Amino acid sequence: MINENFDLQEELHKLPKNPGVYIMHDKHDEIIYVGKAVNLHNRVRSYFRENIGRGPWIDRMVSLISYFEYIVTDSELEALVLENNLIKEHRPKYNTMLVDDKTYPYIKVTAEKYPRVLFSREMKKDKSSYYGPYTSAGAVKDTIELINKLYKIRTCNNSVKYGVKCTDRPCLNYHIGQCLAPCQGLITEEEYKEQLDKALDFLNGNYGPIMKSLEQQMNEAAAELDFEKAASLRDLLASVKQVAQKQKIENSDCEDKDIIAMSHQDRDAVVQVFFVRNGRMIGREHFFLKTGDETEQGDILSSFIKQYYAGTPYLPRELYLQDNIEDAQIIEQWLSEKKGSRVYIRVPQKGQKSKLVELAKQNAELVLSQDKERIKREQGRTIGAVKEIEELLDMKGIVRMEAFDISNISGFENVGSMVVFEAGRPKRSDYRKFKIKTVAGPNDYACMREVLTRRFMHGMEEKRELLENGQSEEYGSFTRFPDLLLMDGGRGQVNIALEVLDELKINIPVCGMVKDDNHRTRGLYYNNIEIPIDRTSEGFKLITRIQDEAHRFAITFHRSLRDKDQVRSVLDEIPGVGPSRRKALMRSFSSIEEIKEASVERLAELPEIPESVAEIIYSFFHSDVLK
């Protein structure tokens, strides 16, 4: 099952002994498992040891692994948060039992005149400042309590104003020296801000003074034999140390950004791109480049940005780079025009964003030193294969390809599938299924006409709605149209697609994937000409993968509909069994066979099934006719 370009033993040997996240892929490039590790080398290797008693579920997952990749982090805590982000983004099959909807806690500093420091489970665009995320809710609460005690930050939600009392008397926190009582109008905004700035300094990572003070107080309490106070200070100190592990994997501005860094050696370079969406890092890509002998890093980054973002379907609001580039202003202007709104190029010098750029650089260095040859092979399979197809068709700028297929059995449950490949890789989040509504019987041409019409009309309508609401097109599910449309067949299918596009006044190149008598791809049909293709080339292999994926996706959808129909038809034939009783039976029994084998008494145990209906069900499955 291992990918032909992936030498398992070689890649296991190269694994670093750093903390990080590992991502397991199957032969269809689908992510099937995401995990974190304190030591990537030890953890990932453990999956491929012989019979270590990990259970059939994990054994099955391991048997499906075609290749793996990994992202190095600076701490186990960062790995944990990144793992959570990737699981929520990709929903891998073998993480299903582990995935929940919990969110990690943040520390929120409100945007009020007299701000409060609060516990929060989510980030909102409400002008507040957010710190985190953190993995220990208890430690966050302890830290907020500590900040409030040390800096006397208010905890009430009263609307306060200097010189104006908003309550008859201050709360208990004021009387025990833990609040400056702005509710009594006793402190100016400037005086309160001085205290808040000290708290923010702490949250921004300047833990030294506080930790030193706590440790000193703890030692003094112990010396005075006040062990209860010493223990309390010790626990607070431990909480501060736990929170002190700053997270670079998420940040509080909720903006979409790409983090770009590179490593350069001789004439080889690797550029690493981290994708941060809505404040969360959700994935990465790395790119191998050939350079000149003395090419500067800034020139390499500039060339990469121009080439990569010329074709990518989505542009973030911000690009963060490790180095300044000479033509940054011109590139900013070009990207802004392409996106339709302002794009910023920044080089962070300090803080969280700078650390994230440094992390991307570390991953680029690791890839360059260990994975250079594998990346070359992989790019040959993907980007290289796309370039071969461009040359065959005399086209340029192919990034997104969409392929369609129809599936039915003698006209039963006609369905259509749409699969999407970008830069030579499947983009499963954009796959779509179509249940044919207007065609009865086995008419593939009519089915394809319906599928294509629905796909592009939906996209046009979605674009129109987004533009009317002042939103960017990239947020729609159908708005991104392909650079090349691939049809599973020759002249007939291509002509159907061209007719639909002509009716909708859309200009997209259409290419047919022509098959031989053995149902194998033999060439491409484009501009009324069949173009032969070298069966050993990467371009041919990519076309075959796309064709197989479209067929697989359609067949899988069709099979699921057949299975559902078979379940419905058997149970619905039983007198007295309607929708609610059918659901109760399927909820309580794992299969139709189990229902068949159940006794009258067992069936009648269900609250929804009275004994008289249980006898009817039993008789239905045990009658002479069925036997």
Main beta-sheet annotation: 8 strands, mixed
Poorly predicted ranges: 97-102
Outline = globular
Q: Count up the domains.
A: 5
Given this structure, which CATH class of the largest domain is correct? Answer: Alpha Beta
Enumerate how many helices there are, as a single number.
Answer: 21
Task: Quickly give the CATH architecture of the largest domain.
Answer: 2-Layer Sandwich
Description:
The chain is an alpha+beta fold and 627 residues long. It has five domains: 8-95, GIY-YIG endonuclease; 106-243, no CATH class; 257-345 and 354-381, Nucleotidyltransferase, domain 5, CATH 3.30.420; 396-554, UvrC, RNAse H endonuclease domain (Nucleotidyltransferase, domain 5), CATH 3.30.420; 573-622, 5' to 3' exonuclease, C-terminal subdomain (DNA polymerase, domain 1, Orthogonal Bundle). It has helices at residues 8-14, 40-46, 56-64, 76-90, 137-151, 172-175, 189-203, 208-223, 227-243, 297-311, 328-339, 351-370, 372-381, 383-393, 444-468, 491-504, 538-572, 579-588, 592-597, 600-604, 611-622, and strands at 20-25, 31-37, 67-72, 106-109, 117-120, 129-131, 257-265, 268-277, 280-290, 318-321, 344-346, 400-409, 412-422, 425-426, 432-435, 484-487, 510-515, 521-526, 529-532.
